[in-house]
Write a structure and sequence with these properties.
Blueprint: H1 3-27, H2 39-47, H3 50-58, H4 61-77, H5 104-117
Helix pairs in contact: 1-4, 1-5, 2-3, 4-5
The structure holds zinc ion.
Length: 121
């Protein structure tokens, strides 16, 4: 899978999970005792608790969608340089002019995507 596909796959996974979680947040009785604006945070810190609950509480469906956008846009912007020589490998990033391919920004985004996709960092 190429870097752009890895980023798109991770972004789609995040969006799909976030949409299901948002539906649950909007409809499941579990969340009803909490104020709507803070239900995600309150429900996770109360229900899960501890350090894991604190971490999960900041990763709301809205955050998941925002991270998905970062992953998608990083993949769309940071494209390899194109070369006219047949069989030539990319020489760097067209967007940020990093001489390495994948560039530093793309490598950082790929590290996130690969964790989401269940692969190696
Ligand atoms: Zn770049």
């Amino acid at each position: 899978m190429n870097p752009t596909d890895e980023l798109r796959t991770a972004a789609q996974t995040l969006m799909d999970l976030a949409d299901v979680a948002q539906t649950d947040l909007d409809t499941n009785d579990y969340w009803k005792p909490y104020p709507k604006a803070t239900a995600w945070r309150d429900g996770l810190t109360n229900g899960m608790g501890g350090a894991s609950g604190d971490l999960a509480a900041v990763f709301s469906p809205a955050v998941a969608h925002a991270l998905a956008k970062v992953l998608r846009e990083t993949g769309a912007l940071h494209t390899p340089t194109t070369c006219q020589h047949e069989g030539c490998m990319p020489h760097g990033c067209e967007w940020c002019a990093d001489e390495d391919w994948p560039c530093a920004d793309l490598r950082n985004a790929l590290a996130v995507a690969r964790q989401i996709n269940g692969g190696q960092p």
